Amino acid sequence: MKSNKYFYLSLRRIFAFIILEILFVMLHNAVSVFLGIEEALFFILAVLVLPIYFIISIAYTLIFLYKNKKLRKDWYLGFLGFLGFQGLNGIMNRDWWIAVWVVWFVWFIYWKPVRK
């Protein structure tokens, strides 16, 4: 399938998303500082295009694994992992009681494919 080439998530592709997001934000800020103009290209890439592509890739990967019966029986519990993002604010503010929310990331394990 050609769509696997573009949308199927792997660990390498997830790291590429993270690196590109950081790169686009840095390029947007660098252009603003060095040229003294507000440009929209890197801002749109960082805020709209890349996150939408990442969400579509997550959905495609889950659908692909579900159709091929490679997901766990309770795969939908993996969505509870998104609650961990609430703890990131606690880490940045050094409020460790809120940072405990990061433990919710463990629920993403339910999206790990099962070997048959």
Task: Describe what you observe in this structure.
The longest helix has 27 residues, at 41-67. This protein is mostly helical and 116 residues long. The model has no long low-confidence stretch (mean pLDDT 82). The chain has two domains: 1-70, no CATH class; 72-111, no CATH class. It has helices at 2-7, 11-35, 41-67, 86-92, 96-99. The chain contains five helices and no strands.
Question: Which structural category fits the helices and strands?
Answer: mainly alpha
Secondary-structure element order, N to C: HHHHH
Kindly report the average pLDDT value: 82
Biggest pleated sheet: none
Q: Write down how many β-strands occur, each being a DSSP E stretch of 2 or more residues.
A: 0
- Share of residues in helices: 55-70%
Give the distance, in angstroms, between the N- and C-terminal Cα atoms: 21 Å
Hey, roughly how much beta strand do the residues contain?
under 5%
Radius of gyration, Cα only, in angstroms? 18 Å
Identify the notable features of this structure and list them briefly.
116 residues, mainly alpha, 2 domains, 5 helices, 59% helix, flat
Helix-strand layout with pairing:
Layout: H1 2-7, H2 11-35, H3 41-67, H4 86-92, H5 96-99
Write a concise synopsis of the structure shown:
By secondary structure, the protein is an all-alpha fold.
